[in-house]
Amino acid sequence: MRLIRILAISLTLLMFAGTLVAQVQDGYEYESEFTWGLNKNTSGGLIGGFVFKKSFKMTDRMLQTFGLEIMNVRHPQEVRFNSAYGNFFTFGKQNYLYTFRLQYGRDFILFKKAPQQGVEIKAVFAAGPSIGVEAPYYVEYLKDDITIRAQYNETMAKENILGPGRLFQGLGDSKIVPGLNLKAAMNFELGIFKSQVTGFEAGVLVDVYTRKIDMMVLAKNYSVYPTLFLTLFFGNRK
């Protein structure tokens, strides 16, 4: 259902952007831009993560880009449960996956925008290393009438779990898993001012790690994580 919702939103926004292309007149020039954004994707939660990108004009129709994405990646079979104490936890989850994606790419300008109207549309391609952080998922667990905090394992009965552990608990025991990422997207800049950037980017991204990420105890784990995404971004150009 999350995948269908993101596809529907993306298609709606694409149709909206397409109606604005007819307004594009003579373009205007800029040499660089910096944008940051909030990401929603099919492998994340309510907010998938944060995106930062610096771009430099190479030609009239092409930009060189350097990007950083910071994401919390979820397993496709994660399900949240409510404990008897009213705390939500993910049963069967053993580790978080935080990923830091470094990206180098090209943006190809398909349509330029007029100074105060229309839309600028780019085709976006980027790739680079992914640094996966496999961090332990701790829970509060009732054992022999004593509350303990420990990383989840398959011996813990669901009815004895009181809730999740403390924020960032066990982060010092994280493992680094290197990988690669590939991204292809369409970028729509809708800002009305020359020096400001506002818009959205929709596309597909794939993370490939050097081994399977041990996120879930009771489900199949993966080394490849494809995702559809939608990023709302803001920034400035000069």
Question: Care to describe what's here?
Answer:
By secondary structure, the protein is mainly beta. The chain has a single domain (2-237), classed as Beta Barrel (Porin), CATH 2.40.160.20. Helices cover 8% and strands 55% of the residues. The chain has one helix and 13 strands; from the N terminus they run αβββββββββββββ. It has one helix at 2-21, and strands at residues 32-41, 49-59, 62-73, 80-82, 88-90, 95-111, 120-136, 138-143, 146-151, 161-164, 175-189, 196-209, 224-237. The chain has an eight-stranded antiparallel β-barrel. A three-stranded antiparallel beta sheet has the order 9-8-10, with no helix packed on it. It has a two-stranded antiparallel ribbon with strand order 4-5. β8 (138-143) and β9 form a beta hairpin. It is elongated, with a radius of gyration of 21 Å. The relative contact order is 0.21. The model is unreliable at 13-26 (pLDDT under 50).
